[in-house]
Specification:
It contains 6 helices and no strands. The chain has helices at 2-8, 15-33, 38-42, 48-66, 71-94, 103-128. Helix 2 packs antiparallel against helix 4 (48-66), helix 2 (15-33) packs parallel to helix 5 and helix 5 packs antiparallel against helix 6 (103-128).
């Protein structure tokens, strides 16, 4: 299991790339979600809640991996940013007559961010803990 977690959290030299990728994905979500009819077409592939959860979980992981600080600081910052991103996404949706803002979507966004933040923090603490010795 430890080797798998190490694969999920890449080397520090990719931090900037991951952080920027998170914001690029978020920008794509905002832009593509604003296209009339795009949401209806993608609903044939997956439900809105599944799309929100997967998208914001990926964004949270990229943010957590792409920031500096202790694992706890990175997890907290990633969760806070994802919560703000989700709220802004719903605010943007409220301006379009063919979209609706929903508290449940924001709740799913925050749930995804929270789950990823907790998993990131717990696996990072285990991975970087100086007290853990391999047998």
């Amino acid at each position: 299991m430890r080797a798998f977690v190490t694969l999920l959290i890449p080397d520090e030299k990719y931090e900037r790339f991951m952080f920027r990728s998170a914001w690029l994905i978020y920008a794509a979500v905002i832009v593509l979600g604003s296209i009339p009819g795009a949401r209806t077409e993608i609903a044939e592939v997956a439900s809105g809640l599944a799309l929100h959860f997967f998208t914001y979980a990926c964004i949270a992981l990229l943010l957590a991996c792409g920031m500096r600080g202790s694992p706890a600081e990175r997890a907290i910052k990633a969760f806070a940013i994802v919560a703000a991103m989700g709220a802004f996404d719903e605010i943007v949706q409220s301006f379009f007559p063919y979209r609706t803002a929903a508290f449940t979507d924001w709740y799913v966004d925050m749930s995804a961010g929270f789950l990823v933040a907790v998993l990131f923090w717990t696996t990072s603490v285990r991975r970087t803990s100086p007290n853990k010795q391999r047998p």
